[in-house]
Amino acid sequence: MTGVSVPRRESALIGGVFRFHRPLVLLTQAVICLISVFAAFTLRFDAAVPEYYLPHLHFALLVWPVTKLVVFWAGGLGHGWWRYVSLPDLIRLTLGNFAGSGLVAAFTVAFCPVGVPPHGFPRSIFIIDLLVCLFLTSTMRIGRRVIWEVSQSRSRDISEGRTLIYGAGDAGVNVLREIRLNAALPYHIVGLLDDDLSKRGSSIQGVKVMGSGEDLASVARKLGAETVLVAIPTATGPQMTAILQRCQAAGIAFKTIPGLSKILDNVNLTAQIRDVAVEDLLGRSPVVLERQRIQDRIAGKVVLVTGAAGSIGSEMCRQIAAFSPAMIVGFENAETPLFHLDNEMRKSFPGVRFQPEMGSIQNLRRVEEVVSQYSPSMIFHAAAYKHVPMMEAHLFEAVENNVFGTFNVASTAVRFGVEEFVLISSDKAVRPTNIMGATKRMAEFIALSFADSATKFVAVRFGNVLGSNGSVVPMFKQQILAGGPVTVTHPEMQRFFMTIPEASQLVIQASVMGRGGEVFVLDMGEPVKIVDLASNLILLSGLRPNEDIRIEFTGMRPGEKLYEELSHLEEGTMSTPHEKVRVFAANAIRQPDMKVCLAALREGCANRDTGLLISTLTQAIPDYTPSEHVLARVELAQRAAK
């Protein structure tokens, strides 16, 4: 067993307390029951019990405590730790007292009928006994908790870790309570903040709501606060950004708790206190999946993921593993990332068999070997070259991988009777201005061209994912660590963003919704300015944009456009039962003659004919606008040919 070691003497003491805890609780409750009997008779007869009622008192002292203790024990009232008493515990205690007093009254009537002494108990004694016993048992528990919390607060060094909680709702109150119960946490709560003005001046568990977020700087100075805990699980991206800016302006550290969906999985909020991440500034609402429908589709089946060690592919493997597949086959061309993924999957999902397979989707024979060997029911095709400027400089490689590679996997799926094929596409396939987007659009055409086969083909489009390999977020973080500058191509550059887990979950969701031949698009929310993203990352690092870290504009790169789109105006769009997934009707997407198109592209790649390659793509994708960089290469190649 791992963990913090406990000294032998302290361990023996703790063991002794656990060993005698229940007998001590039983003894305490027995004493309380005896006191309540004495008190009932004393109060009923004004502290002078008549001689006639002494047999009644003796009977009550012998029978009533035993009867109540049996009821308390049967109701589990002797098993809890009083220092953690809560409202549900007090409700159970009240019910237990009523049940005990009711059983006492029943026994008394049954064993003491008229003519058999002692008989004729005054009815008020039963009521007084109930009230006194309820008061004492409740007071003992509440008192024990008060003493515990006071001792915990005194054991905390109140001169350090002075903290404000931003958010006086349920999450904030829960964080406050948990911090008070754990003296080891480095937080001493000195005040609350909440944007609900009706809460200003109120006191919650003895801590005052000092004002709203606008008062953060003044309140922090007044109370000497060093940290702000943001306890607003439902905060939107703009709200989190505003809080971040206020904390930065006040020169105060900040942390947060996770979103509502994660809180539901783990009620221990203080264990989840963490630094604010860039994902929090997106304000993405939790994804709600049709888990049973997905489970029915994936459980017990073999699932193949191409590009398995990439950002999306690896997360797809993790998400799929949660639905109990018979096996996940990870097909990947990069050896070291696949090695690390294999180790991670074996450790994190020991009950799911993960089979790593090396190979390139450009190698048709290798693709056929893997599909033939494992007979997957589903293929998630995530393998692709995706970096726009890099692909603008490597036109043939982009086509060979993204187009021919997709054709290899798709045609093999049909040949070997794979039930479902899910293509992971990109927002750059919409009105493409770069070779990467054009090749992904061609990959969609390939998937749709097999729509009449027994294999169900669907494609899923989404935009950028935070933290993916080669994306702007890791690059910005490296630049910040190096002291800057942080480079942004254009002040108006915008992109859609979502988290890697969210994208992967919605891809799986879309896969179970498709009937075949659809292109799904994920709800990416509002576009984010790249310069704002850079500024927020600098703020999250505790620095000031353009003061501590300079933001530098470098100019747009080949193939880039200022705004990305997720749908084409000419494509028919329809809603789906899932709020974050929409679908484009396949018959609204004009498809080229795939055989003719692929033959021309193969000829262009074989002969390294840039002009033939680009002309073929522009004919197949009428809204493809090649970049100036690519057009210059075409013109240069044509001049060389002359």
Write structural notes for this entry.
By secondary structure, this protein is of the alpha/beta class. The strands form 5 sheets. Strands 10-9-8-11-12-13-18-22-21 form a 9-stranded mixed β-sheet, with helices on both faces. Strands 3-4-2-1-5-6-7 form a 7-stranded mixed β-sheet, with helices on both faces. Helix 1 crosses helix 2, helix 2 (54-74) packs across helix 3 and helix 10 packs across helix 17. The radius of gyration is 34 Å and the shape is elongated. The model is unreliable at 1-18 and 260-266 (pLDDT under 50).
Shape estimate: elongated
Distance between the termini: 76 Å
Average pLDDT confidence is 80
Total beta strand runs: 22
Second-tier CATH architecture of the largest domain: 3-Layer(aba) Sandwich
Largest sheet: 9 strands, mixed
Specify Rg, calculated over alpha carbons.
34 Å
Distinct helical segment count = 21
Low-confidence stretches: 1-18, 260-266
CATH superfamily of the largest domain: NAD(P)-binding Rossmann-like Domain
Percentage beta strand: 5-15%
CATH topology of the largest domain: Rossmann fold
Q: How are strands sequenced across the largest beta sheet?
A: 10-9-8-11-12-13-18-22-21
Question: CATH class of the largest domain, anyone?
Answer: Alpha Beta
Please indicate the count of domains.
3
How helical, in percent, are the residues?
Answer: 40-55%
The secondary-structure class comes to alpha/beta
